[in-house]
Specification:
Layout lengths: L1 H11 L2 H5 L3 E9 L4 E4 L4 E3 L2 E6 L4 E6 L6 E9 L1 H13 L1 H11 L3 E4 L3 E4 L8 H6 L2
Parallel strand pairs: 1-8
Antiparallel strand pairs: 1-4, 2-3, 2-5, 5-6, 6-7
Length: about 140
């Protein structure tokens, strides 16, 4: 009986892990659309896209499309309001073990910015005639 209570306490101690999970829905958009996106974590997609990504660690995203300059941006893994509230509740109800679990697995964090929205610039020469034509 006592063993069951201890086991349940350890399993339920990670409150943010239970309520928020270690992954989040992450939306990626670009102007123009249909750009290829390669993430430093190995994931790839074509914009617009939605991925389910680990909350920790952050990553970089490289956007490429024919006729446009390649652009790389950084996405951070940060402690946000929902994670902070879950962490505080965890410490009150789940104790130190839950706090350690949530603090180490990323469930207190959120990827930012989300959605990730970028604008690609025309490659050199691709838009030069339109940029000078109206002056």
């Amino acid at each position: 009986m006592i063993g069951s209570v201890v086991a349940a306490s350890v399993l339920l101690a990670g409150c943010a892990t239970v309520t928020r999970g270690t992954r989040q829905t992450f939306k990626i958009e670009s102007t123009p659309s249909q750009a290829k996106v390669e993430l430093s974590n190995g994931e790839t997609c074509v914009t617009p896209c939605i991925l389910k990504l680990k909350r920790k660690p952050g990553f970089s995203a490289t956007f490429s499309k024919d006729g446009f300059e390649t652009k790389t941006v950084k996405v951070d893994s940060e402690l946000h309001g929902g994670g902070a509230a879950a962490g505080a509740g965890n410490l009150l109800l789940g104790g130190v073990i839950g706090g350690l679990v949530d603090g180490s697995n990323g469930s207190l964090n959120s990827l930012s910015p989300n959605p990730l929205q970028i604008t690609l610039q025309p490659a050199s020469g691709a838009g030069a005639s339109t940029q000078t034509g109206g002056k």
